Amino acid sequence: MGDGAGNLGLHHHPHHRSVSSSNPSLLCGPLSLRLSLSSRSRGLAAARDLSQGELILTVPKSALMTSQSLLKDEKLSVAVKRHTSLSSTQILTVCLLAEMSKGKSSWWHPYLMQLPRSYDTLANFSQFEKQALQVDDAIWVTERAILKAELEWKKAIPLMEELKLKPQLQNFRAWLWASSTVSSRTMHIPWDDAGCLCPVGDFYNYAAPGEEPCGWEDLKGARNESSLQNSSFWNKDATNNSDAGQDDVLSQRLTDGGYKEDLAAYCFYARKNYKKGEQVLLSYGTYTNLELLEHYGFLLDENPNDKVFIPLEPEVYASSSWPKDSLYIHQNGKPSFALLSALRLWATPASERRSVGHLVYSGTQLSAENEIFVMGWIAKSCHVVLENLPTSVEEDSLLLCAVDKMQDPNVPMEVGNALRSPGVEFSAFWEVHDLKIGDGNGGLLLSEKARRSMERWKLAVQWRLRHKRILVDCISHCTEIISSLSPTFLGHRGYQS
Ligand SMILES: C[S@@+](CC[C@H](N)C(=O)[O-])C[C@H]1O[C@@H](n2cnc3c(N)ncnc32)[C@H](O)[C@@H]1O
């Protein structure tokens, strides 16, 4: 690929291998680039068995796309200096658009050309896609993301005008593309909050942090930022320990990627053993599904960090000192420790709260009666939330099946017709996009715009379905606890949904 970013001096470790006919991967060394029809499902696979802690990729500083490297462009640098109110993320976004404007003459051209053409992060959601989330909190987060993108774009327009970027690179669509690139692909670097774009390193797909060795809990508080940048968070040990005690460090390392000052490179490690052919994944940080959707445009069916918040009486917050954001239901349907404690205290007569405080804060059940009341209250609240949402778990599951079939390019026309029936939402999507049925066995004709919108609609339905399933699981959990404490209780109160 010549002297441009196609030839970046990346290194794979520890055994360098050349690409051979028996190893037709796009990269040499322990990783291969897995491509598929959709740019969204590209990822890195193990080209041989990998061991936990193994250094598998280094990307030198010179290959990282950062504001610092892009601002070597004198004209850009002079202009940016005149716009001191812009954030580091806005500056990187403008720098990315300015680099795009150079076309083939950009050193980064090969890298820029393989970036996704569009994104599914919440800021890209249309009115229809946003409403499909159904849950007020999620709709609000989406509106906030859209407003933030608009505001940041408007504030950056004077700089883009000064740079005389082409009109198509100055409009909101281009801004959304560039800011979504920054949101979903940058990695943390110590010298710039905006992070860096890391060729090849940004092909790693995400796995939620799972069961981790000791130290995991201690690290939790500092996560939840808006990009791959958290990946570096785990590298604190690795950054500070160079060669000394390397084996120890490797075995204890919580990291899978981070910038190493001593090597002047971004380094990636295998955080577990991988078999040849397995996808090698990176933990970008701890995110709920809504956060994944907001910053990265995807969600996990099984996300150990997912949370559901239910409406609570103001008195619940007032009666304990737990922060609001600790009062939630886990993805397995169990109330969080804080939620349970806060409700146990709230369900205790005010005059007795002081005397039971120490039991509550140590997670102890106060009495069967108190526990039954609390579980009943949670189950009832989940039930009310579910009742007030426009569609049920069953309807959402059917809708997802129908969308899956619609996305199947081989869907015959008759099936396409049948798919138009399930519910108002389907008709609304149909109308918004003015969809047509193709002739012969061509099936449904979806414009590129409709196809992309259907992808985001599906993400919204998947999100709300996961949300509802957590509420349903919570009702089952609470009902089980109630029946274990008082087998006859259910008959009297009927808390089941
Ligand atoms: C840093 S990039 C990873 C490489 C990306 N798949 C590509 O083709 O360029 C992050 C993006 O990959 C996709 N992604 C990452 N992890 C994923 C996962 N576990 N499931 C689905 N999509 C994922 C999302 O679109 C996300 O915004």
From TrEMBL:
GO terms for biological process: methylation. It holds the Pfam family SET. GO terms for molecular function: protein-lysine N-methyltransferase activity. The keyword Cell cycle does not apply. InterPro entries: Rubisco_LSMT_subst-bd, Rubisco_LSMT_subst-bd_sf, SET_dom, SET_dom_sf, SETD3_SETD6_MTase. Keywords: Methyltransferase, S-adenosyl-L-methionine, Transferase. Residues 29-285 form the SET domain. The keyword Cytoplasm does not apply. Residues 1-24 are annotated as: Disordered. PANTHER family: PROTEIN SET DOMAIN GROUP 40, UNCHARACTERIZED PUTATIVE METHYLTRANSFERASE. This is SET domain-containing protein. The lineage of its organism: Eukaryota, Viridiplantae, Streptophyta, Embryophyta, Tracheophyta.
